[in-house]
Design a protein that fits this description.
With 218 residues, this protein is mostly helical. Helix content is 68%, strand content 0%.
């Protein structure tokens, strides 16, 4: 169903000249589809689940919050990118990407100057969500280490989110560069996938012995 919705939404996005809201929703559905594919893979290959046995309810909740905030950051980032109108006939003179100039983490010598205009508000919302997502991912890593879980997902997510913050800052400091923008989106997708996978590993999936399915032959 999501693939069909995504196809129709992609057509609407093109017909409406890359409207920022449609770009953001299109990107958000793509992320949800990726997460569902990861869940389907895990459900089909439950295997040993030692992390799920050691994970606490607090760790699972933190992982869920981190995933939500990362997704929200990506969606708002898609909206920011959509306001640029690159390649469209009605390309605006400036979008949310450059609304704060080259100032980061401040914006025009202020930390959160909401209310200046809609482009500044979009940029600031993206930044606030980015900081919140970073804190939640690092909190997930800390809780995992406290529970004795030293698998690669949480550690990788912590390292990637710090790298993503740096890359986002470079996007602001160095101005608009296609390579930096593509890299930022690609790394954001990777952060999302790893955070989702970390949350999946902390959740017990029923194996054949729990679901009542016959065991696989050796």
């Amino acid at each position: 169903m999501l693939v069909l919705i995504q196809a129709g939404l992609g057509g609407l996005t093109v017909e409406h000249n890359l409207h920022a809201t449609l770009v953001a929703v299109h990107l958000g559905i793509a992320m949800i589809l990726l997460a569902l594919l990861l869940c389907m893979y895990r459900a089909a290959h439950p295997g040993p689940q030692p992390e799920a046995g050691r994970a606490s309810a607090g760790l699972r909740a933190t992982a869920a919050i981190a995933a939500f905030l990362v997704l929200a950051t990506i969606v708002v980032g898609g909206y920011v990118a959509g306001t640029e109108g690159e390649g469209t006939a009605d390309k605006p003179s400036g979008g949310a990407h450059t609304a704060c100039g080259t100032d980061f983490p401040t914006c025009g010598d202020e930390l959160l100057p909401y209310g200046r205009d809609s482009m500044v508000d979009a940029q600031l919302t993206h930044r606030v969500l980015m900081f919140a997502a970073s804190v939640s991912v690092l909190a997930m890593l800390a809780l995992a280490l406290m529970r004795g879980i030293r698998g690669w997902p949480a550690i990788t997510a912590g390292g990637l989110v710090l790298l993503q913050v740096l890359l986002g800052a470079l996007n602001i400091w160095l101005g608009k560069h296609a390579g930096l923008i593509i890299g930022h989106l690609t790394l954001g997708t990777l952060v999302w996938a790893v955070v989702v996978w970390a949350g999946i590993t902390y959740t017990r999936f029923p194996g054949p012995e729990r679901s009542g399915a016959p065991p696989r032959p050796a």
